[in-house]
Amino acid sequence: MTANPPRKKTVLSVFGTRPEAIKMAPVLRRLRTETGLRSLVCVTAQHREMLDQVLSWFEIRPDHDLDLMRDGQTLTEITTRALGALTPYFERERPDLLLVQGDTTTTMAASLAAFYARVPVAHVEAGLRTGDNAYPYPEEVNRRITTVIASRHFAPTEGARANLLREGVDPGTITVTGNTVIDALLEVVKLEPKRAPRLPLRGKRLILVTAHRRENFGAPLLEIAGALRDLAERYPDVDLVYPVHRNPNVDVPVRKALTGVAGVHLIDPLEYKPFADLMAISTLILTDSGGIQEEAPSLGKPVLVLRDETERPEAVEAGVVKLVGPHREAIVREASTLLNDPARYRAMAAAVNPYGDGHAAERIVGVIREMLGAG
Ligand code: UD1
Ligand code: UDP
């Protein structure tokens, strides 16, 4: 009689939104090639179309799709639906490790469901903090809850590691890995430009814009829209390209405020590669996105952050990123300085890599392999 081979340890990755999928893609690719581990992927689909764009680009085929997104979902709805769907799934699959990324409601709810099912949690992009639970809302609390539950923490930077240590996290459970978004970015930018959006550009300089944060819903978003309108009027040689997030709290007011403004191009969310190509050819980026604050410095693109705080201070310290807030006058002033003054522009446009070297996924999977005794 021959003994059954030992069961492979299962790593279950759960994610639900566009940025989580982009940042998990390099990790999933590595996990797939680990012969000693079984990699399972479950998407909550907290996002639908924007998630599917990433899944298809990176050829990620989820083993399970909870298909949770509803139009205009509330935080409570997405949390309870994710908890309700994930709990029986964890009970059924009994993974040896849950891998989550970042600070979305999917991240937090999956961590909590794992805690209830007594499944250990490892957290990718651990330790980002503003220190203020209200900014960003609800992400600061989502990531703190995830830290409390997780038993392994993959911190992207030394600063993130220091934040975790300040909260009493055991130093032996933290590894500084770099951010996996840089792995993803470096992989796509070296590919030939593909499916670039054809836009009726009027000038030679391009400002890329994104905005979607809950703190900016309402009046701040209108301030941002006002600033874009001012810049488009003031600089006829500049085009502002804005892939509009599908959240109706963003899509509806932004399209109402800016449709038809000469020089402002409102487009649908782009696939990752065309978006990275747009970043690479842009003069300047205006955004409240976390991921773009990490990517743009690697491309040497100045970023004006449409927020008053950031959990990503490294690029601000390096001088490539500046906080301007969602304030019309400040946005116009700072963007004008960069558009008018080549010396100031050059000073800000230096390429730096505070968020990673493209090998974060390798480090993460190395630690997981060791943790699970997978050779
Ligand atoms: C979520 C995350 C945020 C992350 C952002 C990335 C939470 C609470 N928020 O915010 O941390 O930075 O994703 O983009 O986890 N929608 C679509 N199609 C899509 C995606 C969204 O129609 O593909 C619409 C739906 O009406 C949906 C709404 O946007 O109900 C809001 O989506 P939700 O995931 O709740 O919040 P986001 O603002 O996208
Ligand atoms: N991105 C994309 N298409 C777009 C806009 C952004 O692929 O039209 C990418 C961007 O390069 C970054 C990520 O999506 O990697 C950021 O996602 P988002 O702004 O939704 O979330 P955040 O980073 O704020 O959590």
Please supply descriptive tags for the structure shown above:
single chain, alpha/beta, Rossmann fold, 2 domains, seven-stranded parallel sheet, binds uridine-diphosphate-N-acetylglucosamine, binds uridine-5'-diphosphate
Summarize the structure.
α1 crosses α15 (360-371), α8 (219-234) runs parallel beside α13 (328-340) and α13 (328-340) packs across α14 (342-348). This protein is 45% helix and 15% strand. It is α/β, with parallel strands linked by helices and 375 residues long.
Please, could you describe this protein's structure?
This protein is α/β, with parallel strands linked by helices. The chain has two domains: 9-179 and 357-371, Rossmann fold (3-Layer(aba) Sandwich); 205-349, Glycogen Phosphorylase B (Rossmann fold), CATH 3.40.50.2000. It has helices at residues 18-32, 49-57, 75-93, 105-116, 139-149, 158-166, 180-189, 219-234, 248-258, 272-281, 290-298, 313-317, 328-340, 342-348, 360-371, and strands at residues 9-15, 37-43, 64-65, 97-101, 121-124, 152-155, 174-176, 205-210, 238-243, 264-267, 284-287, 303-305, 321-323. α9 (248-258) links the parallel β9 and β10 (264-267). The chain is globular, with a radius of gyration of 21 Å. Uridine-5'-diphosphate binds next to α1, α10 and α11.
